[in-house]
Amino acid sequence: MGIREDVIRELTGPGGFFELTTEEVLGQQASVFANRLRSLREMVANTASFGDREFLVLDDQRLTFSDFISLAAQAAAALQRRGIGRGDRVAIFAANCPEWVVSFFAATSIGAIVSAYNGWWTADEVRYASGLSQPALVIADRPRLERSGIGSTNAPCMVIEDDWDEFLASGAGAALDDVDVLLAEDDPAVILFTSGTTGRPKGAVASHRGLIGFVQSTMMNGAVRMFTELRTNPPAEDGEVPSPPAQAVTLGTSPLFHVSGLYGATLINMAIGGKIVYRRGRFDPEAVLQLIQDEGVTSFAALGSIGARLANHPRFGEFDTTSVVNVGFGGAPASPAVQELIRQAFPNAAPAVGMGYGSSESVAVIAGIGGAEYRERPTSCGQVAIGFDVEIRGPDGQPVPSGAEGEIWARSAYTMLCYWNDPDATAATIDSNRWLNTGDIGRFDEDGYLYINSRSRDMILRNAENIYPIEIEYRLDAHPSVAESAVFGVDHLEMGQEVKAVVVPAARAAVDPDDLAEWCHQVLAPYKVPTLWEIRPTPLPRNAAGKVVKRELEHRTCPTGQTGQSRR
Residue 7 above 90 pLDDT? Predict the structure, then answer.
């Protein structure tokens, strides 16, 4: 038995801190924690032990955990007095702010289901989501209300800037213990909408069990990785082991309508007594660096281009970022070049840089990797998380051996319940045994590490050869003159598809498609090297998860000026 297996046995066996047992969940036997909270209301109550520690910060708003519990109780009572109860939907359509978090836990504490609207949606997208989820109330901020025309929907709306104080006053004096609703673990808690990169977004429904399981599973798998690494590479006797920060301080740049913002930041910090610091407006690297310095930020999620934009900012060295000890990737894989950039920029976080692989549908993290093993396997997303079953399946639906590529299927007690009001999409994604088709293509190596090659819809088929864009993007991102890239297939009469690359140059760098093609030829088979090139002067379009929205790049007319297309 190896070191990792020993650690798992100690942590999850009888009497272990993360003791596991098997129970029936939604008709299937599943691995669950023997000692666990049973609802998000219990999770709110459990934060009372953190008392006057700060929890939510935005400008001059600084809420302690005690403040948070009190406000959540008042808001829960206010919702009940509006006639909202178990099973009703409460939509939240606002920028990251303390009111968003309070509203979420108020609604879920009374058994309502939060419909988390994407803060960047247009009026048409809001109308679609409202028609799908039929909210009894929409809690919105004024900018999104004015931009989207949400007033044209049938749902009543409460505007945070105008109505929040009056709303809370209607629940004044309420305590969390006054909320008298019997909640079940598998009751729905939240609808998170998929990114909709291929059409209308679908609403992935997560349960109370799923969200609480996300927290315990994440913490357990982190503990397994940490203890395994300590036993594998113990510190020298005279070496200094750094002390953990007095309080974790997380930069709240990930949107709350996304897994990273709601589950990864909010729920985890509730469990550990951490603080979340938000800021208003669009992402601004210089303002974020100032916030890291002023608040002593210890961790942040480097979704999409966030990490690189911070590290490459011309004034980066003028700010004190030494407090940062943890940087995580998610939403989309980070290239080895970007990983190393982050390690160099945030050296105190270098030992802990890692990534988690999951989705709105999986709820909990399917696989994770960090530390030394991430350096050794920078293109892997790690070993399968404890409590998950994962299979790589071929076209016939049967598991394939290690090394062979196929669709990634996953199963756990925490998988989404369904797509809201979409039984056909649910049946196409979750089979009768509660296995989830992730839609990703990947493989296992001989040591059990999972590698993701592409979304199945992104795969390029050229002269009957399968081409995975991520492999080409990793190579392009490693070029010193490239800031970021996106690769996709373009229809071709004879070859089926040819490979196109859209490249954003690094600051003040000049790039030549011939040079980039030669760079790719050095390590890639000839059929994988792009034959169509576009040099783009502006950042790639990304959704809230940090994923490049390739459909916005496809079939577009290339503007004149610095950007251009060339066929090689």
Answer: yes
Read off the pLDDT of each residue in 406-412 and give the average, rounded to a whole number: 96
Distances in whole angstroms, Cα of residue 395 to Cα of each of 29, 392, 404, 464, 555? 27, 10, 12, 16, 30
Report pLDDT for 505. 94
Shared domain for 317 and 239, answered yes or no, is yes
The reply to whether 272 and 184 lie within a common domain is no
Specify whether the CB–CB gap between 466 and 500 falls below 8 A.
no
Q: Supply the CATH number for residue 302's domain.
A: 3.40.50.980
Question: Which of 465, 436, 550 lies closest to 205, judged by CA?
Answer: 436
**DSSP label of 228:** H
Confidence of residue 557 (pLDDT cuts 50, 70, 90): very low
Region 246-250: mean pLDDT is: 95
| CATH number of 480's domain | 3.30.300.30
Q: With CA atoms as reference, report the closest residue to 244 among 195, 292, 282, 299.
A: 299
Question: CA–CA separation, 76 vs 103, rounded Å?
Answer: 8
**Per-residue pLDDT tens digits for 95-129:** 999 999 999 999 999 999 999 998 988 888 888 89
**Structural domain ending residue among the three candidates 201, 220, 246:** 201
Total structural domains within the chain: 3
**Per-residue CA distances from 290 to 63, 321, 507, 528 (Å):** 21, 9, 21, 42
Residues in the chain: 568
Q: Are residues 275 and 153 in the same domain?
A: no
Beta carbons within 8 Å of 203's beta carbon, 6+ residues apart = 115, 129, 132, 133, 191, 192, 193, 194, 419, 420, 421, 422
Separation of alpha carbons 208 and 43, rounded Å: 10
Q: Would residue 508 count as lying in a domain?
A: yes
Question: For the residues 518-542, what does the mean pLDDT come to?
Answer: 91
Read off the pLDDT of residues 317-355 as tens digits, 9 standing for 90 and up: 999 999 999 999 987 778 898 899 999 999 999 999 999
pLDDT in tens, 52-110: 999 999 999 999 999 999 999 999 999 999 999 999 999 999 999 999 999 999 999 99
Are 178 and 286 in a shared domain? no
What local confidence, expressed as pLDDT, does residue 566 receive? 57
Domain coverage including residue 496: 460-567
261/534 Cα distance (integer angstroms): 33
Cα 380 from Cα 364, distance rounded (Å): 18
CB-based burial, 337-354: b 16+ in 10 Å, e otherwise? bbbbbbbebbeebbbbbb
State the Cα–Cα distance between residues 336 and 312, nearest whole angstrom: 16
Question: Do the domain assignments include residue 315?
Answer: yes
Q: Does residue 139 lie within any of the structural domains?
A: yes
Residues whose CB falls within 8 Å of the CB of residue 258, separated by 6 or more in sequence, listed in order:
192, 331, 544, 545
Cβ–Cβ under 8 Å, residues 19 and 13: yes
Are 129 and 186 members of one domain?
yes
- Are residues 303 and 195 part of one domain? no
Judgement on whether residues 180 and 267 belong to the same structural domain of the protein: no
For residue 90, what are the β-bridge partners? 114, 137
